[in-house]
Design a protein that fits this description.
Elements lengths: L4 H18 L11 H21 L1 H7 L1 H20 L4 H6 L8 H20 L3 H22 L19 H21 L4 H21 L3 H21 L2 H22 L11 H19 L14 H4 L2 H7 L11 H9 L1 H24 L4 H19 L4 H23 L27 H34 L2 H8 L6 H13 L3 H14 L4 H9 L5 H14 L4 H14 L1
Helix pairs in contact: 1-2, 1-6, 1-7, 1-18, 2-6, 2-19, 3-4, 4-6, 4-16, 6-18, 7-8, 7-9, 8-9, 8-10, 8-17, 10-11, 10-17, 12-15, 15-16, 16-17, 16-18, 17-18, 19-20, 20-21, 21-22, 22-23, 23-24, 24-25
Amino acid sequence: MKISLVKFQSAVILSTASLATLAISPGLGYDPINLPKMIIVVTGASILLIPLLRNYLELLSSNSIFTLATLFFSLTMIIAFFTNSAPLSQQLWGVWGRSTGLLTYLSFIICTLSAALLTSQADTPAIRQTFERLSYFITFYTLMQAGDIDPINWSQKLMVATLGNLNFMSSFLGLASISLFARLVLEKLSTTAKFHYFIFVALNLFLIWLSGSIQGLGVFAIGICFTLAILIRIKRDFRQSLFFLLTVAPIGLLTLLGAAGIGPLSVLRQETVIYRRDYWVAGIRMTQDNWLNGVGIDSYGDYYEQYRDLAAVLRTGPQRVTNTAHNIFLDVSSGAGVFVLLAFMLIFLLTSLSALKLIKRGDFSATDSAMIGMFFGFIFFCLISINQIGVGIWGFVFIGAIQGSASRLRLGSPKGQSDLKNGKNKPAKQIPSSTYMGLGLKIGSLFLGIGGLVISVIPSITDAQMLSAVKTRDFNSMLQVASKFSASTFHKSKYQTMLLDEGKTQEAYEFALEEFESNPRNDISLRIIASTDSAPKNLRIKALELLIERDPNNAEFLSYARNLLRSLE
């Protein structure tokens, strides 16, 4: 059976991105959101790897700087993975509850380059169409949650769809609304179609407002600004389009600063944004002190208390902690260093320039116009949020689609006017199907896909085993799970907490000693060692010193730790 290579890539990319957004595993483990999404993304990227390598030189010749930027990002992140002191398992699979480790980021890059390769050959509206259809499901499911008729019995009754958090849900609906809004203002549609898209835009914005999350509104606002800029370009010229963007940019910046309690619009102050300011400050300080290779991929949470300032502690108390900077660029720089950050920023900068060149040239399709708006909306998401897999995968596909479109137009037809002018849709070129997958390519993709599935499913199995052991209070099974390479700090801390609750202090101390050797930043292990009377005095002192270094602005704990130190000296 002959399989077209480009159609195969298209099917895998769209299936991977869609399933990554939808994948959940309620009741099977402690993390029913991020772990199943990582499995989908890593498996899909593994399947795409060999077809990508087969056409890598073609991609390099059509878009060399962008392709090299992604290669530099991947290589520097791999180097950081091997050269810092964070636990390798945490860096590989990501911290529990986030799953944005090395495997996830490399998978994002593979999906980005695959999307770029696909769209460099022909306009592919299927990406946009698939995303919009997926968004309808997310909209309806969120509406069900808002009406308290969710068929899944989640531990919390929130409007999170399949994304696990109000902010991620609102950002996803914000991105979808950009694409739907672009259809309303840029395309010639029937009255029925216009009503359809208007209803969904209004419904999405209503759900975002109902959730109380401002992220989706910010994402949507940025996206429609670029959509309107494209409309101005179609109706008039690029200079007026650029003038419009330069006019609204200061307003957007002042609004964002106002939400953070800074500047003349501080009346817009939002507490969640204020907290993000604390997280950003810690991320910047973390990057400054560990500029070469970071503190460890996805290991921000191990160092947050050390690098937060006194204002962050006094604002709400020392109990407010986080394992992410709530800014993807700072997550990258704090975790892997400035060279990885520079490569990451270059990817976004080059895509921004490609998008602006598409607008300037005026030769873009309806798909391109939507991708441009959603890409800039995604940048806003990156600046204030977490690289949640179900949202992030689409952002990186948008990046690839824009780069591919820019390459196609740069190497193809001469400068022209968009076929969206006068409301006409540009017909999609057919993707060539002359290149078919040979037997070797099929077998290679199959085996790599199986390999990606096997390596990505390991943390989910560990998570499920720990939940089962905790439910049955089987401490032997808990110990076996917590001792695995794939066990996260969460699982190990869970086991130690359960031991302490049962009065098994000696077992907790013995496990804490083992954990101290492999991960001296585990807070619970350090506290157990410091408070165990039978522990060697020098070890207790070392643990206390590390705890003080780990949380230097927690006055209440510092008083306790220093008093204990004096009693030991």
